[in-house]
Design a protein that fits this description.
With about 200 residues, this protein is α+β, with helices and mostly antiparallel strands. It contains six helices and six strands. Strands 1-2-3-5-4-6 form a six-stranded antiparallel sheet, sandwiched between helices. It is globular and about 40 Å long.
Length: about 200
């Protein structure tokens, strides 16, 4: 009788151990057998990169990096100063950007020469997550006035989408192309995907 009782306890112990091992193995399998959608989502999250700059300070640092890489003789005369435009001032926004619709726009930052007769303007537009960046870029390229300065006009203008934000520059050909190249490098250093380049030559 005593022997039978001992065997019974051993059997129960064996069953408990077997069930425990089974549960552990099951949990392990659940973690390992991910669907292709789950794997794809995780991979996309790892490789998506930065989509937006988050503040005026971030945009200012971006411009500092851009201008830090441009040869001094190509920089706008008097240096370039960044200003955050008031989204409520539609007249000022239209004058500097040509934009009239602000859907999807979080902030507009203008960088221009301190000398008003120098045809140079760089614009960074921060967008919302659901913004149509391509549409905003096209409006900017089509509607901005390259001759907004007194007696001078920008020779060339470029626009790229960085992440889901927009970078635009216009001015003399050599300056605009160099600033664009440094902006692309600054975006890539932040792991921001850069689109194709829209460009337009203007009569001067």
């Amino acid at each position: 009788m005593k022997k039978k009782t001992i065997i019974s306890k051993t059997g129960i112990l064996a069953v408990i151990m077997a069930l425990s091992m089974s549960a552990v193995t099951g949990c392990g399998n659940t973690g390992g057998n991910r669907t292709s959608d789950e794997v794809s989502s995780e991979e996309n999250a790892d490789t998506a990169g930065m989509v937006h700059l988050n503040s005026a300070d971030d945009v200012s640092a971006f411009f500092d990096e851009v201008y830090g890489g441009v040869a001094e003789d190509l920089l706008p005369m008097g240096g370039a100063v960044m200003t955050e435009l008031d989204l409520g001032d539609t007249d000022m926004l239209s004058y500097h950007t040509g934009l009239t619709a602000l859907d999807g726009i979080e902030g507009v930052y203008l960088s221009e020469s301190m000398v008003s007769s120098v045809p140079y303007s760089a614009i960074y537009i921060r967008t919302t997550d659901d913004a149509d960046a391509e549409s905003i870029r096209k409006q900017l390229m089509d509607n901005i006035n390259p001759a907004k300065w007194v007696c001078v006009s920008a020779e060339q203008q470029y626009a790229v989408i960085v992440g889901n934000d927009i970078f635009f520059v216009m001015g003399f050909q050599d300056t605009a192309s160099e600033v664009l190249a440094k902006a692309v490098a600054a975006a890539e250093s932040r792991d921001m995907k850069v689109s194709d380049t829209l460009e337009k030559a203007n009569p001067v």
